[in-house]
Amino acid sequence: MASIPTPQPVPIRLEGIVKRFDHNVKGRIAAVDNVDISVAPGELLTLLGPSGCGKTTTLRMIAGFEHPTEGSIFIGDHDVTRLRANERNIGFVFQNYAIFPHLSVFENVAYGLRVQGRPEAEIRSAVEQVLDLVGLGGYGTQQPHQLSGGEQQRIALARAIVFQPRILMFDEPLSNLDAKLRGQMRGEIRELQKRLGITTVYVTHDQEEAMAISDRIAVMNHGSVVQIDTAEALYARPCNAFMANFIGKSNLLPGQVLQADARGAQVRVLDQTLQCLQAAPEVRAGDAVRVVVRPEQISLAPGGGPGSASVISRTFLGEKTEYQVQAGTATLHAVAYGAGASARLAEGQAVQVVLPAEGNAIIRD
Ligand code: ATP
């Protein structure tokens, strides 16, 4: 299998980064507001968040296409805050591949090396190696229009890595591809990134893509990082209501803290006592809180009786059945997988709701 020598992976560090645009329609409101992020050597970190939250601006500052109003950016031990983009040794893959339509696949990838005046033999060997690496071996003489969208995206990838960059950056690289190809390409990008071991920053607004491709995800909103962690941790321990609803679906159930210590908190929710994870800031006995309960964590069983609830709506979706359930004043979203009894409940039916006994997150806002 082809491989190109890659430099030692380097960390990236953003310290107190603020970006204000002079001509922003919102006035001088910060597009990026006091962001601290550390990316470990060889890590793939994704910036994820709703439109306008500042992901692209953050990425462009790391790449050197924009300069921060305040704060510092380090690549390895070097403060690169004031360096130009071409002095940072970063490979960049954009959403629109920026491919030259009149150049062959080979020449598209060779272009930057030719501009640098590298010797012909070196160019030939480097381009052939990266074309093999991205699965385009043998495509060198083709014209870009003869290739599919996925193959064109591979040209862009080859062009980014042919310089042996210290860092790779992706800005919504898969947005122009259909859903099936997106799934395939994200797998290929991840596999290549791991193989090369290059520290990578990836921007997307697609939550599933972020979860599938990343070592860790930094979720941004209104210019700030809300939470940064692995996909599993963000799902299990969202830090606030925005996070609980942004990563997956959740029920935010009101509860009362019965007792709490450093390890956890007992919370009374819907007539059940749950052993929950301590929140930050810590909760204390008597606090009114909300508990994050995912739809798939709710067990529904047919049957009435004290504390029973009723099915308001049922949506059959093949491998799963979604329900809305009224339990006292709370409306719950629940989901049942497979074809068991819990997937065959009818609208109007009385049901028993069982919440997970332990491990759920508490939020304070
Ligand atoms: P999207 O997913 O829609 O691309 P984003 O999270 O990448 O959004 P940014 O493109 O970083 O968000 O934009 C953040 C904020 O900064 C927005 O309010 C945007 O209007 C503003 N902004 C970005 N670039 C400029 C610019 N060159 N001049 C003025 N304002 C800008």
Describe the structure.
The chain is an alpha+beta fold and 365 residues long. The chain has two domains: 12-236, Rossmann fold (3-Layer(aba) Sandwich), CATH 3.40.50; 249-359, OB fold (Dihydrolipoamide Acetyltransferase, E2P). The protein is built from eight helices and 20 strands. The protein has helices at 55-63, 105-115, 120-133, 149-161, 179-196, 207-213, 231-236, 241-246; strands at residues 12-20, 30-39, 44-48, 70-75, 78-79, 90-93, 167-171, 199-204, 216-221, 224-229, 251-260, 264-269, 272-277, 288-293, 299-302, 309-316, 320-327, 330-337, 350-354, 358-363. The strands form four sheets. A six-stranded mixed sheet has the order 6-7-8-3-9-10, with helices on both faces. A five-stranded mixed barrel has the order 11-12-13-20-14. A hairpin with a 2-residue loop joins strand 9 (216-221) and strand 10. Helix 2 (105-115) runs parallel beside helix 4 (149-161). The longest helix is centred in the middle third of the chain and has 18 residues, at 179-196. It is elongated and about 80 Å long. The mean pLDDT is 91. Adenosine-5'-triphosphate is lined by residues 21, 23-24, 31, 49, 51-57, 205.
